[in-house]
Design goal:
Blueprint lengths: L2 H32 L2 H26 L7 H24 L5 H6 L14 H24 L6 H19 L10 E2 L3 E2 L2 E2 L3 H26 L2 H11 L1 H6 L4 H27 L1 E2 L6 H14 L6 H19 L4 H15 L7 H13 L13 H6 L3 H8 L1
Antiparallel strand pairs: 1-4, 2-3
């Protein structure tokens, strides 16, 4: 590695560290000082969406996997947390089953509820089950070389199937879902200080997730993921299994979505099939596309911006917001594929070409794995194919 490359990476690390410091100040100092309790809780909800978006940015933006079913993993984490909170409330009240089961006439606790009465088991389930489901699904899909629109349709069908399944299960709340939570691991949700604590937890989790995504993007695995996205057959020719590379990114995105769902439940106070079906999964994707799926912060800021716009505009234009959301998605995908994060480079390129500014020569650095794939002779690939 050349000295120039080391300097460039050191400068990038310092810039990222400064960015994280600014974000921490805004989230932990400025936001609680200037926002009301209601607005702060609303921002915490948006941060949960941003956590999901960061994972989608890795899987879709860097890996090329159009994940239309992230609501599945979001729902797994959310329902596990909801079941634990319902069980904890029932125990404090001295009941054998949660209140909604008593109303529905269910007198005996279903067997699949019982493990989640334990807080450690619930936490382990939140951290493990979404990734495990993604690993099984990813193995079956990517090993069979299913990709593109077929993978997108399959993942969307999975989200729709889960929402329909939960709608018919009265033991999990049915269509109305689970709500009326009183405490979060012993902390009363009616206390404003505890609700502020939830905001801090969501903010800290988002910063950690963004840091992990950045580390993956700038690692050799990140370069290999881009190579799989752009030239999958050449990556296979070089001796890598593209399926394994995709599975890792897919599992990481599911892991983040499960955590976001688990935080969403106590913050919002309700989880239902309407929050995890096809429409929410597409909404996650729209935020990522608008913000800029190939960048680090684009998906995060796009998800927060779209969620804020939906909350603000849907109150004034409830029927028109869905159409506006669709128009934004079409405009971005059709005319600005890089999202809002790509607007500045487009304007800069237009300015340079318009006024005749020549770009300075770029420093020569060692080729990354993705660049190495691009430099692989096509003739060798043909010989290998024969």
């Amino acid at each position: 590695m050349t000295t120039l490359t080391r300097r460039m990476r050191a400068h990038s690390s310092l810039t990222a560290l400064a960015g994280f410091a600014v974000a921490a100040v805004l989230l932990f100092a400025v936001a609680p000082a200037v926002l009301s309790d209601f607005r702060l809780n609303l921002l915490a909800k948006f941060l949960c969406f941003a956590i999901v978006a960061a994972g989608i940015g890795l899987a879709w933006g860097r890996g090329g996997m159009l994940t239309l079913g992230q609501g599945v993993f979001f729902g797994v984490g959310a329902y596990i947390m909801a079941m634990h909170m319902q069980m904890a409330d029932a125990t404090r009240l001295g009941n054998d089953v949660p209140e909604f089961m008593e109303i529905a006439g269910i007198r005996e606790l279903p067997s699949f509820w019982q493990p989640f009465a334990s807080a450690p088991v619930a936490i382990i389930g939140i951290l493990v089950l979404p990734g495990l489901v993604a690993a099984v699904l990813g193995y079956g899909v990517f090993k069979r070389r299913v990709k593109g629109a077929y993978f997108a349709i399959l993942s969307q069908a999975l989200a729709a199937a889960l929402a329909i399944l939960l709608t018919g299960q009265q033991a999990i709340g049915g269509f109305t879902g689970l709500s009326d939570f009183r405490a979060f691991f012993g902390f009363k949700l009616s206390d404003p200080a505890n609700r502020q604590m939830l905001f801090f937890i969501a903010a800290g989790t988002l910063l950690v997730v963004v840091a992990l995504v950045r580390q993956l993007m700038h690692s050799r695995y990140g370069e290999l993921l881009v190579a799989v996205r752009d030239q999958e057959e050449r990556v296979r020719f070089l001796g890598y299994d593209p399926a394994n590379v995709k599975i890792v990114a897919y599992v990481v995105a599911a892991f983040f979505a499960g955590i976001a769902g688990a935080l969403f439940t106590p913050i919002v106070g309700i989880i239902s099939p309407a929050d995890i079906g096809v429409v929410p999964s597409i909404a996650f994707l729209i935020g990522v596309a608008i913000g800029g799926r190939t960048t680090l912060l684009g998906p995060v800021l796009g998800a927060i911006g779209v969620a804020w716009a939906q909350t603000a505009l849907s109150e004034e234009f409830p029927s028109e917001w869905t159409y506006l959301q669709g128009v934004l998605f079409i405009v971005v995908v059709g005319f600005i594929p890089a999202g809002l994060a790509g607007v500045w480079p487009l304007l800069k390129g237009f300015y340079d070409s318009r006024f005749g500014r020549s770009a300075a020569p770029e420093p020569v650095a060692e080729p990354t794995p993705a660049q190495a794939v691009e430099q692989t002779p096509v003739a060798e690939e043909k010989v290998h194919t024969r």
